[in-house]
Write a structure and sequence with these properties.
alpha+beta, Beta-Lactamase, Heat Shock Protein 90, 5-stranded antiparallel β-sheet, 5-stranded mixed β-sheet
Length: 347
Amino acid sequence: MVNLISADFELSTFFEITPDLVCVASKDGFFKKVNLAVIAKLGYTKEELYTRPIASFVYEEDKEITRKTRKELLEGKALINFSNRYVTKSGKIIWLEWTSIYFAESEVVFAIAKDITERKRVEQEVEDKYIKFKSLATHFKSRIEKDKKFMAYELHEELAQLVAVLKMDVDWIAKNEPQLAESSKNRLEHALAVSKMLIKSIQRISFSISPGMLDEFGLSATLQWLCNEFSLMNGIPCNFKSEYNEENLTHEMRIDFFRICQEALTNVTYHAEASNVNVSIEDMGSKIQLTIVDDGKGFDITQQEDTPGLISIRERAASINGQLNVDSKIGAGTKISVAVTKQPSYN
């Protein structure tokens, strides 16, 4: 290759006919030799290309990254698949992907580039569609959460209040009608007990549908309550540990962390046969990670079919760009973790 780059920078016949852009540049940043593809692609004459700094053809927003990358190249770092934008003589912006080598003894850069403008266009279309669909998914998810919040409010504020009034009436009858038969008194006591249970059930269902305390007291307090409730309902110890800054999670992330934990604990209730559960949210440097671990019967991941619970967890993790990891072995319990990138503090 060194022989190819002679003093007069002659290019071989192969490089003249290749559709790729091939050039030789000086250490100070000027074209010394280009093939016909460079001229055809950029639209400038040889004289125009040779008399202007290469940087002057680079798209303004890419000049700084190009400068830094070129500096690394001259320091001996090979440049492979580096892409930046150039402005043609007609004003069109094109993407070029470069592979370059600097020959220190000759103080020249040998470079080959491919036009990847069409590829970039397709990638941008895909990214735009992804952003659009993600925005729609976020909108629908927010709409669902709002509907759940309204339903929870109706349950707690309307239905629970009606049951509470009914309980008060039953309680009044029991206290103010001493002439009632013993069997009637027993039925009233039973009605009072059932009404108390009904109120608690409505409150629990309301919380399950939409935890109002998530907005009032934060994610950690809500998950602590969820773990305590899980322990009371199932008789399984559920420990919670929190070591992170909640302000580094968006509101959407907080909701999805709660829902993921809720779903994971539901799976433990119905499938794991566990005797202990540990839930934690920890600062992992650039990420914040939610982890749910149980010591239940576990399962073979390679043989396990996707259950509705796992599908829900996977979809919620994906919606917040979370890294989901499910680790389980038969007889060794299950560990579910979701890590998300820290966000700027939300005050």
